[in-house]
Design brief:
Structural class: alpha/beta
Strand content: 5-15%
Number of helices: 14
Shape: globular
Number of domains: 1
CATH superfamily: P-loop containing nucleotide triphosphate hydrolases
Strand order of the largest sheet: 2-1-3-4
CATH architecture: 3-Layer(aba) Sandwich
CATH topology: Rossmann fold
Number of strands: 4
CATH class: Alpha Beta
Largest sheet: 4 strands, parallel
Helix content: 40-55%
Distance between the termini: 50 Å
Radius of gyration: 19 Å
Length: about 280
């Protein structure tokens, strides 16, 4: 397949901590969708100047006759990703996922603890004092470049909470959007949550797993990282390391602070998506 003939049909751009792993693993179950494409390629973000386009194309070897796509949450946050994607694939369908930014911020906090970037003892109330930690909930700012480059009909913004109300209708919408023929297909295990935050007995062990994966992806070893991930070894280690007790709840004062902080973003996002009412009713 020549570079001119090669095209990607859909690209998921984010946002992180919004169910992108769950969505991706369900979409690639469809028999018409190529399932060898690794999640978190990051090519149009940090790897764009490190790897040539043939490196990216080779990740889709064996995909002839299939719908091709990928999902890298870094694309939503990278200032040049939308422009780069459009340069190579102007007809690509763009998929973004959002969730209540209040819940997303708390999920991010737990994720940073798992990565070892934040101490387990560091209070959430202190964490949200840093507004740089809250910016990722301003979805409108990060979606704007995609709306500037792609026509509206080529962008699908999914709301996690709404998806969970009617999974069959949601996946029908997604499959129609990316262009498969059998839009009634419902992925097996679609109700199972993926990549959920949990408590760990040995947090340092989880830190090592996350940092190893991050190290491989940043060096362009995405395919190897994906094969290792699919081998089930990491999931087995995590399962053995997991505690049965749930994660602690967000404190009420912090929750109210975030509700107030993201109130304006609620309105902006509703306007961007052409909605008359706010998306999250708290």
């Amino acid at each position: 397949m020549s570079q001119q003939q090669f095209k990607v049909d859909f690209i998921g751009v984010g946002s992180g901590k919004c169910g992108s792993t769950w969505l991706y693993e369900n979409v690639i179950q469809h028999p018409e969708v190529f399932d060898g494409n690794p999640k978190e390629i990051h090519y149009f973000g940090d790897l764009y100047e490190q790897q040539d386009f043939n490196w990216y194309k080779d990740l889709f070897a064996g995909s002839e006759g299939k719908i091709k796509g990928e999902f890298s949450i870094s694309y939503m946050y990278h200032p040049l990703a939308a422009e780069r994607i459009y340069k190579h694939f102007p007809d690509a369908k763009i998929i973004a996922m959002v969730r209540d930014p209040v819940e997303r911020t708390y999920s991010d906090y737990q994720h940073f603890i798992r990565k070892g970037d934040v101490s387990r003892d560091y209070p959430f109330s202190e964490y949200i004092r840093d507004q740089d930690k809250l910016k990722f909930g301003y979805y409108t700012d990060y979606l704007a470049p995609f709306y500037q480059h792609f026509p509206k009909e080529n962008i699908l913004v999914l709301v996690l909470e709404e998806m969970q109300h009617d999974l069959a209708a949601c996946y029908k919408q997604i499959f129609e959007f990316i262009g498969v023929k059998d839009t009634s297909f419902l992925p097996e295990g679609v109700e199972e949550k993926r990549n959920q935050g949990v408590n760990y007995r040995f947090l340092k062990l989880e830190n090592v797993l996350v940092r190893t994966y991050r190290f491989m992806v940043k060096r362009g070893l995405t395919g190897f990282a994906e094969r290792l991930k699919r081998s089930g070894l990491a999931q087995l280690v995590r399962k053995m390391n997991a505690k049965s007790e749930p994660l602690p709840e967000m404190d009420s004062a912090s929750r109210q602070q975030l509700v107030d902080y993201f109130a304006e973003e609620q309105t902006r996002l509703a306007q961007l998506l052409g909605r008359d009412t706010q998306i999250w009713n708290r």
